[in-house]
Amino acid sequence: MTETANQAGTGAAATALSVNGSHMSVDGVAPHTTTLQWLRSNGITGPKEGCAEGECGACAVMVSRPDGERGTRWTSINSCLVPAAALAGQEIYTAEGLASSDALHPVQQEMATRGGSQCGYCTPGFISSMAAEYYREDRSGCSCGTGGCGSSPTTSDIVSPAHAEPSGNALPWPLVVDDAAERLETWLPPRTEGDSAAKIQPATRYEETSTHEPEIGPNGFDLHALSGNLCRCTGYRPIRDAAFALADVDPADPIAQRRERPAPVSSPLRIESPGGTFVRPANLEEALGLLTGTPQAVLLAGSTDWGVELTIKHRRAPLTIAIDQLAELRQFHVTDDHLEIGAALTLSEVERLLDGSVPLLAHLFPLFASRLIRNAATIGGNLGTGSPIGDIAPALLALDAELVLSSPRGDRTISLDDYFTGYRTSVRAEDELIRAVRIPTPLAPLSRFYKVAKRKYDDISSVAVAIAATVTDGGIEHIRIGVGGAAATTLRAKNTEAALLNKPWTAGTFEAAASIMLAEGTPMSDHRASAAYRSATLAQSIRRFYAEATS
Amino acid sequence: MNPFSSRPLAEIPDNGALGVVVPHEAAWEHVTGQALYTDDLPYRSANVLYAWPLQVFAAHARIDSLDATTARTMPGVIRVLSAEDVPGINDYGDIGDETLFPDVIQYHGQPVAWVLAESLEEARLASDAIEVSYTELPSIITIQDAIEAEAFQGPRAILQRGDADTALANAPHRISGGIDIQGQEHFYLETQASFAMIDESGQVFIQSSTQAPSHTQEVAARVLGISSSQVTVQCLRMGGGFGGKETNANAFASVAALGAVLTGRPVSVRLNRTQDLTMTGKRGGFHATWEAGLDDEGHILAYKAVLTADGGFSVDLSPAVVSRALCHVDNAYYLPNVQVTGQIARTNKTSHTAFRGFGAPAGMIVTEDLLGQASTKLGIDEEEIRRRNFYAPGQSTPYGQEVSQAKRMDDIWDTLKKTSDYENRLAQVAEFNAEHQHVKRGLAITPVKFGVSFNKPVLNQAGALVLIYRDGSVLINHGGTEMGQGLHTKMLQVAATTLGVPLRRVRLAPTRTDKVPNTSATSASTGSDLNGGAVKNACEMILDRLAPVAAGMLGVHSNDVRITGDIVSGLGVEKTVSWTELIETAYLQRVSLSAAGYFRTDGIHFNLSTFKGNPFKYFSRGAAVAEVEVDGYTGAYTTRQVDLLHDVGSSLSPLIDLGQIEGAFVQGAGWLTQEDLRWDTSDGPDRGKLLTQAASTYKLPSFSELPQVFNVDLYVHPTDDGSVYGSKAVGEPPLMLAIAVREALRVTAAAFGEPGVQVELPSPATPEAVYWALEKARRPATAPAPVAE
C-alpha cells in the first residue's frame, strides 16, 4: 500500500483501512462524516456518542501511530472528532476487536469482574483507552523510584480474604443455561458451607502509602490515560482498580507484536463526495497550493477543534486538507539556541520528545485537556485556532516562542507575542500555515504554570498563567508572564512584568505586582467564572509564584 | 399451607445465589462493545428515518406561523411532523401542561416540529429551512423571580407537627438562614433515544431508553389515539438514567411512534448532547429559608422552613419531589416542632423532574446547613451536635411514622467514627492547619436516613413473568428497567435463590410491556424491592405446583420438598432427583411451568392533604466522613479521603451494592461541588438559554475527583421486614452521603479565618464559591462580595 500509491488517488488501496483486523474502505465518505458515525453506520456500534465533542471518551478507539522511527504505538483517540477519511490507510481497534473467540482481553476481564461497568455505555471507550495504556511499551512500575515503590492505593479486599478474587483467565461469559456448560461457576467465588453470615462482603479498604504517586499503579499504569473518559455510574474506583490490576503484556499477543513494526503511512489521496472534497496532499508544497486555490479550505491535523465545528456547530467545508502526516510539519530539532517543534506533532508526541526538558510545558501538559485529546491535538493546531484560552499559548508566550509560517512565498518567523490580533484572529495570511514553533534556549531557570478551572483535569481554563523568570542576587533579571482567559486573546501581562523586572526578590515586590496583575486584561463573567474571580486569581498567581519559588 | 410461597418474605435461605459477589449480568456485553442500546438498533434495521427537531430559541413566546413548505421539498425529507399530525392528544404529560407540538414556547429551545428524513444530515438541513415566526412573551427564569411574581404551580404542601412558632419564641437560641441549592443535569452518557416501528397488523413497537415503559406506552397511546394494547414498549437497557428517563423519555418515544405510524417506516429519534441538555428536565434547584430554635445542648426544638422547588415550565414530578423533600428535612434528626411549607415555582425552563434522591437531598442539605451554623454559634462540635439530635427508638417523624430500627443510625455513626479514625484525624487536621497558611484541611461527618417506598402508595406494586422450559432452563421478565444499577443481576439472583437452581440456569429477557403490564417506573430505589418481590412470587407459585410432583417422585409430603443447588430432595429420604428430571416429570403430568408474579408493599399509606401517614416501608441509613484540602490561592480543592458505611440489609448482590454506593456518592459530590447549571438570566437576546449545554461547559466528576483514599463498607444486617430476603434499597440513599464533602469544604473555608467565623457556602461549592467563602473568612472587612448570578 505504501509503495504503489505515491500520488493522490481514489483507488481502493488509498482508501482502505483496517478495523479490528478486517479490511474496510472510506471510499466516497463525506469529509464531514466522523469516524464514529462511519463505524456505527457500518454496524460497529461498540463506540458510543456521549458528547460529540471529545469530552467524554465514550467514542474512544485505538489507532496505530508512529512511535519514533521504527515502531508503532497504540494510541487512543476520540473517534467522534476525526473525519473517517483522515484514517484511510490506518489501523483501528474498537472494544469489539479486542476479545478473542474464547477469552476476554485482559483489560476487558479486569473491567468486567471488578465492577468497572454499570450501565456499560462508556465502557467500550474506557476499554480502548485502558488497552492503549496497557500496551504502552514503557509502562513499568510506578515512578516513585527505581522499579517503583511496590505499593499502590489499590483496594486490598474487594472480596473478603477468605475468597479468591473473581478474576483469572477463564471466560465466565456469556451466562449459559445448558448443563454441559459449567463456565459460570468457574469464576464464582467458593462459598462457605451453609453459613449465610459468612457470605462475601465486598469493601474498599486502601493501603495507605505516604510515598506513592496516587495516579500511577504498581504496574506502571498511568491513570491520566483515562482522564478523557467519563463514567457517570461507577465513581471510577473499580475502574482504577481494574487498571492497576493489569499484568504485563503477553509477548504472544498479536496486538502487542504489532508495535514492533512501523506504523502505517497513509497514502496521498483525494476523496470526492457530495459533501465536499477530502485531500491528503503528498507534501507541504501541494498542501500550500491547495490552500492558495481554496481559501475556504480547512486544514486538518488532530481535528480536535474542527471535529467540534463539525458535530456541534455543523460547519461544512468544501475542501478539507489533511496535514497531520506531512513530514515537513513533523520535525523536531534541538539547536544551540532554540528548540524547533513541528506544528503537526501531537501534544502527546511533544510531551515525549521534550521529556521534561522544558519544565513549564511539563507542568502544563497534564493539565491540558485529556490524554485522548493530547493524542490527537497538535501544537500548531492549538495556536492556529487562536483560542483566547488555549493553554499552550500562555506558556509559549512566557517562553518567548516564535512561529515559523510557511506559504508559497517561503517561510517567515514571527514572535508569538505579535501573532494574535483579536478574538480568534492572527497575522497569519490566508495562504499561510504554521509549520513549526521555536522555543529559544537557554530557558529561564524559574517557571510555573497555573491553571484555574472547575475541574482539576480535562477542563477549559477560567484563567491560565505561565511565568518564566531569571533571578539573580541583583533581583529579577528577566520575567515573562503569559495569560489566558483574561481577554479576547492570550496576552502577556506586560504591566506586571514591568513591575517585577529589575526589582529585588521580596514579598513587597510581588505584593505590588499582584495588585497590578489584578488589573491585567479585560476579564469577563461567564459560566466558567466571574470577572472578579478571574482578576483575583490572576493576582493570586503572582503571590503564589513568589511563595512557591521562595520555599 | 403452600409449600413455598407461605414462607416470610425476609427469610434468607442458605446456599442460594444470594449475597454472592457477581459482576453485572451484562458485564461481558459491556466490555466487548456487544451490549445494545436503543440507538444501536437503527444500524441493524433497514429503511430507517431519522428525526431532527426544530427548536425555538426563546424563553417564552407565542408561535405566529410555521412554514415547512421549503423544508418538505428538500432532499431526503419524508415528512415534517407538527401539531396537526397528532391523531390523539397533543400532550405528553399527565395533566395537560406538556404540549408535544406547542403553539406557545415555554422554554428556550423547546421543539415545535420534527423533520423525518433519510439521513440525520438531511433532517437537520431541512429543519433549518422551516420558517417560524413568533412573538416573545414575558418570561420568568429564576426561582426568586417566580416567588416574587407568585408564579407557582401544582399543590402547596405543609408538613406540620407541634407548635413551631411557640417553640421558636421560647427557644434559648434562635438562628435563621437561607440557601439556594442549584439543580443538576443527569448527564446519563446515553442521551434520550427511541426507535419506533409498525408491525404487520399496524401495532406500534417502540424501543425506548425509558425508566418507565408502561408510562411511555400510555403516553404514546394517548398521543396516537389508540389503546395501550396496540402499543408495546421495550427497553433493552439504558446507558444511565438517574431519574432523567422517568418522564423525559415519553415525548421522544411519542414523536418516534407518531412518525412510524404516519410514514410506515421505522423512525429513530435520538437527541444529540446539545439537544438533550437543552430539551430535557433536570434536578430542579431549590430555594430555602429556615428558622430554628435550639436549646443549650444543641437540640433542635423548633424548625420552620419554606422550600421552593424550581419546577421548570410544567408540573411533571415536582409535587412528588417536594413531598420527598419535606419528608426528608428531618434526615436522621428528631424535630419535635415543625412547620415546613413546600411549593413549586413555575419558570421558563425545561420541566424539572426526577433525579436520584428526588427532593430528599435538598431537604437534608437545609438541615445540615442549619446544624453546621448552629455548631459554630453554640460552640458545639459539628459531630457532637448531629449525634445529639439523632432519633431515639420510639420517636416518630414529623409526618407521623415511627422511626423503625432507630439504633442503626447510632451504630453506623459510632462504627464509622472508629473505622475512619475520626477523632485522631480531626486533631491531625487542626495541626496541619496551624502549620499552613495557604492551604487548609477540613473533616466532616454527616448521616443519611432515607425512606424507602414511593411516596405515592399506588406505585408500590410490581409484576414479573417466570417461564420454565422443558429442559429446565428458566427465563424471567419483570417490570423493572436496567440502567446500570444492576437490577437485572439482582433479579437473576433472586430467581435462582428462590427456585434453588444455579445462577446459570436463569436468563433474563429485556423489559417489555407485553410481558408485564402496568408497571411503575424503576425509581425511588424500589426496583429490587418491588420487582424482587414479584419475581420471588412467580417462582414460588411454580414451586408450589412442582412440590406435589416432587413429593410423588420422592415419596414425601409436598411440604417436605427442598430444592437447592439443582437437587430436589425430601426431608428424611435419601433419594434425590435432579431439577431437570423434576421439570420433565411436571411437564409430562401437565403441570403449568409459568407464572405471572405480583407484589404490593403492604402497610404503607400517606395522606397528601394532612401530610401524615406511613409512607415508607423502612429506612435506609448511612454515614460519611470526608476530608478535603483547599488551596487558599484559588479555592480549588482535593478530596483527600472519604469513608462510607452504608446500610444494605442483607445485600442481594454485594458488588452491585458497592458500585451503587460509590457511584451515588461521587455523583452527589459532583452535584454539590462542580456541576454548575447556568442559565442566561439577563434581559438580552439569549434570555433563558442554558449556558452550560455541553460536556465542555458542564463538568462531571472525572478521575481527578475520585477521593484519593476511598474506603467503603457495607453495613450488612438483614432487615427484619419489608423487603425481599432482608435486603435494602441502595440506589438513591448514598447520594446524600456526599453532603459530607460540602460540610468539609465549609469548615475548611472557615479555617482560613479566626475560630468561630461563620461561613456560608453556596451550592454548588465550586472553586470560585469556595474562594469567596474563604476570602470572607480570612479578610472579613475587605473581601469583595461574590458576584451574584
Whole-number total of structural domains of chain A = 4
Task: Give the low-pLDDT segments of chain A.
Answer: 1-8, 145-199
Q: Find the structural class of chain A using helix and strand composition.
A: alpha+beta
Q: Please identify, by name, the CATH architecture of the domain at 403-443 and 617-789 in chain B.
A: 2-Layer Sandwich
- How much helix, percentage-wise, in residues of chain B? 25-40%
Instruction: Give the CATH superfamily of the domain at 403-443 and 617-789 in chain B.
Output: Aldehyde oxidase/xanthine dehydrogenase, molybdopterin binding domain
Could you tell me the radius of gyration of chain A in angstroms? 25 Å
Q: Can you offer a commentary on this structure?
A:
The complex is a heterodimer of chains A (551) and B (789). Chain A is an alpha+beta fold and 551 residues long. Chain A has 4 domains: 10-187 and 203-264, Beta-grasp domain (Ubiquitin-like (UB roll)), CATH 3.10.20; 269-322, 2-Layer Sandwich (Uridine Diphospho-n-acetylenolpyruvylglucosamine Reductase, domain 2), CATH 3.30.43.10; 327-440, Uridine Diphospho-n-acetylenolpyruvylglucosamine Reductase, domain 3 (2-Layer Sandwich), CATH 3.30.465.10; 446-550, Enolase-like, domain 1, CATH 3.30.390. Chain A is 24% helix and 20% strand. Chain A is built from 17 helices and 21 strands. Chain A is globular. Mean pLDDT of chain A is 87; it is low at 1-8 and 145-199. By secondary structure, chain B is an alpha+beta fold. In chain B, α14 links the parallel β18 and β19 (506-508). Chain B has an 8-stranded mixed beta sheet. Chain B has a 5-stranded mixed beta sheet with strand order 7-15-14-13-8, sandwiched between helices. Among the domains of chain B are: 27-35 and 461-600, Aldehyde Oxidoreductase, domain 4; 403-443 and 617-789, 2-Layer Sandwich (Aldehyde Oxidoreductase, domain 4). Chain B starts with 26 loop residues before the first helix and ends in an 11-residue tail after the last helix.
